Every structure is written in structure tokens, then in C-alpha cells.
């Protein structure tokens, strides 16, 4: 796919910097050091990095050709130029010139300093990172990673419910407890949403203080290999007719979405069906209240990635892993959301987070 885009754009190379999910996906190598991945129109690949990362990159990276800055006279150039960034930029330009590059494609998050260095020597075009689309369809190993994460969440979650039944907790204490239990299971969870009361009308409010009539928990941990899961449940703790009606509508909308998900379906149609379900229950969306976000999103090396099931047309394909998370939010009541991770298959979908949804 990336080679086809290079040909379409009449570009000679695609260049990407380290420090993001796309770089790891392309190279299968992760480090805090500044590194570059170069892909030529003929399929030539090069991973460029510091000498101290060379041995590990040769062992761990899927890129066959690996070179260090030091192999390309970094020390001599540093003595002459005196600025390490300028030296690395010069080495990058020299490599591309050796490859007879005239036009180079870079992603939109490419570092400005190095982008200007390339622009001084080549025609440069900023493009959407082509690895984004490739990442949307997961291979068997990636599905296995996400499935494992999901199972760990639903193993841990009953412990949280037990504590809520027997202890008076604050939102912060629930968050600490849940993240600690997930850590013991091999998952890192940060910024977990544990929110109650009217504060839950803000979908991304983390939550604080006393737990009131209900508790919305949204947890999105990742494993040691960098893959995420995403899981939300709304727990009704005290009898509240408005919250119960909202939760019932959310669950019906989610059930309808599940019934539609399969290869070839337009994600926008799923989103519209969810909106129609809410309208049939009398829940309108206006002025930042109601169903205020998309129906779901892809998940993998990032919590939010392709595809997005919202207002834009997108064809779902077998192997995509997406969330289904309808929700309703009203300032005078609070928010209700339920979210599951789903694997798209040819004729249906598989729910990877099979856990009770109507929690009262």
C-alpha cells in the first residue's frame, strides 16, 4: 500500500520519525532515541538510529537494513558542525541523495526542524501517514494481543463490583483500585474514568469525590507490547428512573449496532442506526447534550485509531477491531455509556469483552 502511494505521488521516499505507533508498526522496534525509517519506491528500507541502539535493532527490528549515525561519520560531522540535530539532518539528507531522491513524502507529525532540512534539498509533500490505513486491519497476532487484554479486564472487573457492594469509596479510590488490579494482571491503565453524578455528563471527565446514584467506569489499558483494550460500564447504585431509562436506551442502541456489524457495512450507517434508536426513545441531541460522540473507533497500538464509526463513510472489513460505545449525556442528570470491543468478521462480529451490561 505504501509503495502504491509513493508511485501515485511520484515520490522517491517516505520518511518517518520514531516515537509513535506508526513507526513501531512499520519497524517492530521501540526506543526513546531519535530514529528514522526510510522506505523507497523500490521497496528499499532503512532504519537509521544511534550506535547504542544498533545491536538491539538488528536483533529485534523487522527492517533488514539498519545503520547508525556513527557509521555515517557522525562524530566527525559533530566536530565540524557542533549541533547534533544539524548533524543528523545532514546525514538524513546525504542518505536520500545517495538514493537519488527528488521528492520525499513525510507524515504530518514529522519534526519541523528536520522537515525544513529536507525541504531545502528536495521537493517535500506532507501526507497522512499511510501506515494508519494498514493498521486498521489486524493480523492474527494483533487480534490475540487485544483479545488477551479484554479477557484480563473482565477477569478483574468483578472485584471492583464486589468492593462497590461492600465499601463506601470515592471515585479516586475506585480508579486506584482498578488500575492496581490491572497492573497485577500485566496491563498498564492510566487516566481511567471513574465518574459519578452530574460530572458524568462530560464524556471525558475523569471523576472525583463522592459516588452518587451511579458510577461510569471507562478503562483503556495497554499490555507490555503496546496494544490497548477499551471497556466501559455504567453501574446504577441507587434507584434512579431517569438513569435506568437512559441505560436501557443505550443498551438497545448497542445491541442494534452489534447486529449490523460485519464486513462490507458502512460504519456511518451503524452510527445513524444508533442515533435513530435514541430518537425513538425521545433522546434528542442538541447543544452538547444527548449522544455527542461517535459510535465507535478502531483500537490497537493506540486507543483511538482507524476506522471511525461516525458521520463519515467508512467500509468495515474483516479483521478490524472496533469499539461500540453509545452513550447519553445530560447536564441535569449525568452520563450513561456502555462500551465493548468487537472483532469484525465476514458475516458477523465477535464481542471480545463478553461481560454483563445491565449493572444495577
Verbal overview:
The chain has helices at 2-8, 21-27, 54-60, 74-81, 84-98, 112-119, 131-136, 140-166, 171-184, 241-260, 267-280; strands spanning 13-17, 36-40, 45-49, 66-68, 103-107, 123-127, 193-196, 214-219, 231-236, 296-298, 305-309, 321-324, 327-330, 334-337, 340-344, 349-351. The strands form five sheets. It has a six-stranded mixed sheet with strand order 4-3-2-1-5-6, with helices on both faces. Strands 7-8-9 form a three-stranded antiparallel sheet, sandwiched between helices. Strands 12-15-16 form a three-stranded antiparallel sheet, with helices on one face. α3 (54-60) links the parallel β3 and β4 (66-68). With 360 residues, it is α+β, with helices and mostly antiparallel strands. 37% of the residues lie in helices and 20% in strands. The chain folds into two domains: 2-135, Creatine Amidinohydrolase, Chain A, domain 1 (3-Layer(aba) Sandwich), CATH 3.40.350; 137-351, Creatine Amidinohydrolase. The longest helix has 27 residues, at 140-166. α5 (84-98) crosses α6. The protein is elongated.
Amino acid at each position: 500500500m505504501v509503495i502504491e502511494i509513493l508511485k501515485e505521488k511520484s515520490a522517491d521516499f517516505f520518511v518517518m520519525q520514531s516515537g509513535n505507533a506508526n513507526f513501531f508498526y512499520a519497524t517492530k522496534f521501540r526506543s526513546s532515541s531519535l530514529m528514522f525509517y526510510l522506505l523507497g519506491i523500490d521497496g528499499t528500507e532503512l532504519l537509521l538510529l544511534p550506535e547504542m541502539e544498533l545491536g538491539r535493532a538488528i536483533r529485534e527490528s523487522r527492517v533488514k537494513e539498519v545503520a547508525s549515525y556513527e557509521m555515517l561519520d557522525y562524530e566527525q560531522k559533530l566536530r565540524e558542525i557542533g549541533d547534533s540535530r544539524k548533524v543528523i539532518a545532514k546525514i538524513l539528507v546525504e542518505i536520500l541523495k545517495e538514493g537519488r531522491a527528488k521528492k520525499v513524502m513525510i507524515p504530518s507529525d514529522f519534526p519541523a526542524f528536520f522537515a525544513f532540512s529536507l525541504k531545502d534539498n528536495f521537493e517535500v509533500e506532507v501526507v497522512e501517514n499511510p501506515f494508519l490505513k494498514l493498521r486498521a486491519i489486524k493480523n492474527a497476532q494483533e487480534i490475540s494481543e487485544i483479545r488477551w487484554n479484554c479477557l484480563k479486564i473482565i477477569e478483574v472487573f468483578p472485584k471492583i463490583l464486589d468492593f462497590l457492594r461492600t465499601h463506601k469509596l470515592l471515585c479516586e479510590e475506585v480508579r486506584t483500585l482498578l488500575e492496581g488490579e490491572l497492573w497485577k494482571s500485566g496491563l498498564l491503565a492510566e487516566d481511567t474514568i471513574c465518574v459519578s453524578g452530574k460530572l458524568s455528563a462530560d464524556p471525558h471527565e475523569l471523576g472525583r469525590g463522592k459516588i452518587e446514584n451511579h458510577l461510569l467506569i471507562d478503562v483503556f489499558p495497554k499490555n507490555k507490547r503496546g496494544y490497548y483494550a477499551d471497556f466501559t460500564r455504567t453501574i446504577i447504585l441507587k434507584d434512579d428512573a431517569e438513569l435506568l431509562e437512559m441505560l436501557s436506551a443505550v443498551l438497545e442502541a448497542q445491541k442494534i449496532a452489534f447486529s449490523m456489524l460485519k464486513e462490507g457495512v458502512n460504519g456511518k450507517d451503524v452510527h445513524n442506526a444508533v442515533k435513530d434508536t435514541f430518537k425513538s426513545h425521545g433522546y434528542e441531541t442538541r447543544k452538547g447534550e444527548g449522544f455527542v460522540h461517535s459510535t465507535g473507533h478502531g483500537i490497537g497500538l493506540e486507543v483511538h485509531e482507524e476506522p471511525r464509526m461516525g458521520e463519515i463513510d467508512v467500509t468495515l472489513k474483516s479483521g478490524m477491531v472496533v469499539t461500540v460505545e453509545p452513550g447519553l449525556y445530560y447536564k441535569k442528570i449525568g452520563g450513561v455509556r456502555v462500551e465493548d470491543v468487537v472483532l469484525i468478521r465476514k458475516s458477523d462480529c465477535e464481542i471480545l469483552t463478553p461481560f454483563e451490561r445491565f449493572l444495577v
